[in-house]
Design brief:
mainly alpha; 9 helices
């Protein structure tokens, strides 16, 4: 049995070490720190991509980790793969909750697309016209946004995404295909307007 003292630094952990760490975190809250170290940046990046604001993403990310800490004892998964799906499900739900709770969602999206400054956008963006891409993404439905972000930014499989958003993998494929077509049309329309 792996104890908290036996866990190596999370960046050096093998798959079986991480599986043991997840199982240990379900029993010993102190082991959750290792999972936090490994997943915080990933979850934060996902949130920044979804909401476009580092400040809002920090709040959402904090809510994700509070939820994880409260419910880790009830986690039903077997290892890191299940934990990864579980935490991204929580992140997707927190982002969606943020949009539902704010009556100013449309105002926020319009302001984000029109007035976003580089500090709010992801620093590791490789897209030269990220504002246009983000504006087009924000025009999609929240589920479509989540699927695109999980597939291309988090590089998840269709099966993983299906479990996170609560649909079948075939539905994810179809939704992704249709969403990308909509995204392409919006981007083409934006380019024509320039």
């Amino acid at each position: 049995m792996l104890s908290n003292a036996d866990i190596k630094l999370t960046r050096e952990m093998t798959g079986s070490d991480m599986n043991a760490c997840v199982q240990l975190a379900c029993r010993e809250p102190s082991a959750l720190a290792h999972l936090y170290d490994r997943y915080y940046d990933r979850i934060f990046r996902f949130c920044v991509y979804r909401v476009g604001s580092r400040t809002v993403a920090e709040d959402i990310c904090s809510a994700v980790w509070v939820s994880v800490a409260k419910s880790i004892k009830h986690f039903q998964g077997d290892g890191e793969t299940d934990f990864r799906k579980w935490i991204y499900t929580i992140a997707v739900n927190e982002v969606n909750s943020y949009y539902r709770k704010t009556a100013r969602r449309n105002r926020h999206l319009r302001l984000l697309a029109e007035n976003a400054d580089d500090e709010q956008l992801s620093e590791d963006s490789t897209y030269p016209q990220w504002r246009q891409v983000q504006k087009a993404l924000k025009s999609l439905k929240t589920r479509q946004q989540s699927i695109i972000m999980l597939r291309f930014f988090e590089k998840m499989s269709f099966d993983e995404i299906a479990e996170i958003v609560g649909v079948r993998a075939s539905t994810v494929r179809v939704t992704l295909h249709r969403s990308l077509k909509k995204l392409q049309k919006k981007l083409e329309s934006q380019m024509e307007q320039k």
